[in-house]
Design goal:
It is built from eleven helices and 21 strands. It is of the alpha+beta class. Helix 1 links the parallel strand 1 and strand 2. 28% of the residues lie in helices and 26% in strands. It folds into two domains: 176 residues, FAD/NAD(P)-binding domain (3-Layer(bba) Sandwich); 187 residues, D-Amino Acid Oxidase, Chain A, domain 2 (2-Layer Sandwich), CATH 3.30.9. Strands 5, 6, 7, 14, 15, 16, 17, 18 and 19 form a nine-stranded mixed sheet that branches. Strands 9-2-1-13-21-20 form a six-stranded mixed sheet, with helices on one face. Strands 3-8-4 form a three-stranded antiparallel sheet, covered by helices on one side. The protein binds flavin-adenine dinucleotide (FAD). Flavin-adenine dinucleotide binds next to helix 1, strand 2, strand 3, strand 14 and strand 19.
């Protein structure tokens, strides 16, 4: 089949590689430059973890993804995935029903070996943490982080080598439909590209390109900070691995120092509804002050560290937090691969196979979970109201 993929983030890049390898003729388009500076994928790092509370399905998916990361490190001959382990600490005791407790229990049930942390242990192994505040939790040696921008570049290079037609500097405007079927697309510079199947993998842009998806997908901005600590040695992965700091109360998570001397810290919270190219897509005073408060309490040595880069990164959220990978039942020949809900990158080694199976309508257990599901609506109507008129 002739397949055109809209968007060269991680979903589009992995799908391009897999579909070309399966014998299709693939065109991949993106306004560029790749990695696109506004894409969710484009950053120095993303957490790769297995912890999903009591959700065993996602832990299973993440286990497969971890094996995939090791294979990619081998294939690309590069450390794209860094197995630093992931540290989850709480400001109180880990109690049944919390994200940390449920994850810890499930890890053990599935044969993993997370290490429970006590205050003396935290002081000894992770001295940058304020152990008067963070008193319990665990360390999982199997997770870590992936260099997301570099990963997408490697995949796009591979796609080109395999024969994928890359059209960087080209943007989708609308579908080309005839006799009740998608026949291709029209670009913003009025060029027509014929295709048997169009895959829209445009992250937070998806529902603006396909407006009938607005009730199901929303673009939600989260702040990301790159800090330059005074003593970079203190933030090496051995004593400062990837972390989540009392996730349900603070929302903060972060990464050890990278080769450029940067510690990245970001916040997962309610976020701000916005278009991916909106002027308001900048970190605001509230978000920055909130970070400083968090640092003072959690990592005193970072309290005044200069911020060398800040960005708002956009989730493509669904109402139930699950991905959205399926044929559009109303537009034959259109496949959507979006709805990352802020946690999709870790599954990168699996996306190509999942999206290609969707295109070829092959049996795949994950496609049931990520199916087209207009019946899923916000639990609270006021949640939906936050997004109305933000485009
Ligand atoms: C703050 C933040 C933190 C995150 N942290 C993590 C994490 O720690 N771990 C994890 O697993 N996941 C994380 N994620 C989620 C992860 O980043 C996403 O799941 C993943 O990057 C989504 O990739 P994508 O390809 O769907 O979208 P994107 O990477 O956004 O790519 C979409 C592409 O579509 C292109 N596009 C837009 N318009 C057009 C058009 N008209 N025509 C053609 N192309 C177009 C864009 O240029 C872009 O390249 C995080 C996300 C955010 C925002």
């Amino acid at each position: 089949m002739n397949i055109t993929i809209v968007g060269a983030g991680i979903n589009g890049a992995t799908a391009a590689v897999e579909l070309q390898q399966r014998g299709h003729a693939v065109t991949l388009l993106d306004p560029g430059p790749i990695p696109h500076p506004l894409a969710a994928t484009t950053d120095i790092s993303k957490v790769v973890r297995m912890e999903y509370g009591a959700d065993e399905e996602y832990m299973t998916l993440a286990e497969s993804a971890l094996a995939g990361w090791q294979a990619w490190n081998h294939e690309f001959g590069a450390d794209l995935f860094h197995q630093t382990g992931v540290l989850y600490l709480r400001r109180g005791e880990m109690k049944r029903g919390t994200y940390e407790w449920d994850s810890w229990k499930l890890l053990m049930q599935r044969g993993h070996h997370p290490q429970r942390m006590s205050v003396p242990e935290i002081r000894k192994r992770f001295p940058m943490w304020n152990a008067r505040k963070y008193v319990d939790g665990f360390y999982d040696p199997e997770g870590g982080y992936a260099e997301s921008g570099r990963v997408v570049l490697r995949l796009v290079e591979k796609a080109k080598t395999l024969g994928v037609k890359l059209r960087e500097g080209t943007a989708f405007r609308e579908l080309l439909e005839r006799n009740g079927r998608v026949r291709g697309l029209v670009t913003t510079d009025d060029k027509k590209i014929a295709a048997d199947v169009v895959i829209v993998a445009a992250g937070a842009w998806t529902q603006f390109l396909l407006p009938w998806l607005k009730p199901y997908l929303r673009s939600n901005g989260m702040p990301v900070f790159h800090l330059a600590p005074k003593n970079p040695e203190d933030f090496r992965a051995t004593t400062f691995p990837v972390f989540a700091a009392d996730t349900s109360s603070t929302g903060y998570y972060g990464f050890p120092i990278n080769r450029d001397g940067v510690v990245k810290i970001a916040r997962h919270w309610d976020g701000r509804a916005m278009h991916p190219e909106a002027n308001e897509r900048v970190v605001n005073e509230f978000e920055e002050n909130n970070l400083r408060e968090f640092l003072k309490v959690t990592f005193p040595a970072l309290a005044d560290a200069p911020i060398v880069y800040r960005r708002i990164c956009l989730y493509s959220d669904t109402w139930d937090g699950h991905f959205w990978v399926d044929h559009d039942p109303e537009h034959a020949g259109l496949v959507v691969a979006a709805g990352d809900s802020g946690h999709g990158f870790k599954f990168a080694p699996l996306w190509g196979g999942i999206i290609a199976d969707a295109v070829e309508q092959k049996e795949n257990r994950w496609l049931k979970k990520f199916r087209w599901r207009p019946e899923v609506r916000p639990a609270r109507p006021e949640e939906a109201a936050r997004f109305i008129g933000r485009e």
